[in-house]
Design brief:
The complex is a heterodimer.
Chain A (H helix, E strand, L loop, with lengths): L1 H16 L4 H6 L2 H32 L10 H8 L2 H12 L8 H12 L16 H5 L16 E3 L4 E8 L6 E5 L2 E4 H5 L7 E3 L3 H17 L18 E3 L3 E7 L7 E3 L4 E9 L8 H6 L3 H4 L2 E8 L2 E8 L6 E4 L21 E4 L7 E3 L4 E6 L2
Chain B lengths: L1 E7 L4 H4 L8 E2 L6 E2 L4 E4 L3
Antiparallel strand pairs in B: 2-4
Chain lengths: 369, 45
């Protein structure tokens, strides 16, 4: 309301400055009119989003599972310059806001996307832009870390989309009912994903026993990945005890990623892919969503063996910033037209040990645009 | 944005012999809201 009052005062002042002539008086209604129309449109879009979310929630409670259904809108998305849109969005949200406007803007954002402002580490007027506010850190102690040494904790705030054990040929994760993608495509073909060829199933048990004995002699982090297995993703099967979990972050969620356990990150892979939206509707309508989108994969070892974490970007949250490698730049302008470039890979030093992280340590952050 | 976590976790001998039970158990359900630091799953010695 105060914003509108201020706007009205400004437009009145402008009108009187121009002498209150006819045309300038007419113009004075254009700005508030356009603003009101924009706000109305945003309100309608938000109401529709809430309605859709509610419908999805109700369907989930009833046990109804959505099936994969490609549609025209999804095909149309492929034609849009989503990377440029994302970068433009990042530029707009990075514009510094006047100090007086900041609390109003961030409160409006929090109300629209259900963020808890009481957890923000800084007073609202200290976040210079929406981009800065979006990636805010939290007050000390806001996220207590489960100290049980026999538990794996969530690396992010979000909604659990899928989880389970990887079994069967190719190690596939279901995107939605009726469509799956392979973990090797998500993590990269050079991944050290523990897989075994189907013919070697008989040898698996004795192999695992010997690995366990060998592991107990060494400390878990000193096992080198210098000689990765060569395997065929189609005929290979995941070794027993390989699990996955997919977590979706809504726009209002805390957008920093933390370490799910004590682990050693050996490799980082950056896939400069597309930037499709990753909401529930997009997952239902766009094939290979997580495999096609820009992402950063961190791969390493923890006390129980292999561990990898893929941070998948989206149109509005396109860039991923690593606190363990601040120089990494994502969501850069594309030089090639083809989206299927090989990932850019970096081995962390010292070789075979990598970068050690404790459970709960901050690893990365998702940025706007 | 989305985060996908892939990890090895302990399995019991019964799984190796072909039974379906697993030593690692997720403590979450689909659609659950989770926060940083909350347990995704646990295993027992």
């Amino acid at each position: 309301t105060s914003f509108f009052k201020k706007l009205q005062t400004t437009t009145r002042a402008r009108t009187s400055f121009n002498g209150g002539t006819g045309p300038s008086r007419g113009d004075s209604f254009l700005v508030p009119g356009a603003t009101a129309a924009t706000l109305l449109m945003l309100g309608v879009l938000h109401a529709r989003r809430l309605y859709d979310d509610k419908k999805v929630e109700e369907a989930r409670e009833k046990g109804i599972e959505f099936e994969f259904q490609p549609d025209v809108k999804a095909s149309f998305l492929r034609l849009l310059p989503l990377r440029s849109i994302s970068r433009c969005w990042g530029f707009l949200t990075g514009v510094e806001l006047p100090v007086w406007l900041r609390p109003y803007a961030y409160r409006a954002w929090a109300r629209a996307f259900h963020s808890n402002l009481e957890e923000a580490a800084l007073p609202l007027d200290e976040y210079a832009s929406l981009r800065h506010f979006f990636v805010r850190s939290l007050k000390e102690g806001s996220r207590p870390i489960d100290s049980d040494p026999r538990c794996l904790v969530s690396p992010v705030d979000g909604t659990i989309l899928r989880f389970g054990e990887l079994k069967g040929a190719g190690a596939m994760i279901e995107q939605v009912k009726g469509f799956s993608y392979s973990v090797s495509s998500l993590l990269g073909a050079s991944s050290c994903l523990p897989m075994i060829a189907q013919g070697d199933m008989q040898e698996e048990v004795s192999e695992q026993e010997s690995t366990v004995k060998e592991k107990s002699k060494k400390s878990w982090w000193s096992i080198s990945l210098a000689s990765p297995k060569v395997w065929d993703p189609v005929s290979a099967r995941p070794m027993k005890g390989l699990f996955y979990c997919v977590i979706y972050l809504k726009p209002g969620d805390y957008h920093r990623i933390h370490s799910p356990a004590d682990w050693s990150i050996l490799v980082r892979r950056h896939f400069s892919g597309r930037l499709f939206p990753v909401n529930e509707r997009a997952a239902r309508t766009i094939k290979n969503l997580y495999v096609e989108n820009e992402r950063v994969v961190l791969e390493g070892l923890w006390q129980e063996g292999f561990m990898a974490m893929a941070a998948v970007g989206a149109t509005n949250i396109g860039s991923i910033e690593l606190s363990i490698e601040p120089e990494l730049q994502t969501n850069r302008p594309r030089k090639k037209l083809l989206p299927s470039e090989p990932p850019e890979e970096r081995l962390y030093e010292p070789e075979g040990v990598g970068m050690m992280l404790k459970k709960g340590d901050e690893v990365a952050a998702f940025n706007m645009g | 944005s989305t985060v996908v976590l892939v990890f090895q976790a302990p399995i019991s001998k019964s799984v190796e012999l072909g039974n379906s039970s697993s030593e690692f158990e997720f403590s979450i359900k689909r659609g659950d809201r989770i926060r940083v630091g909350e347990a995704l799953g646990r295993w027992h010695d």
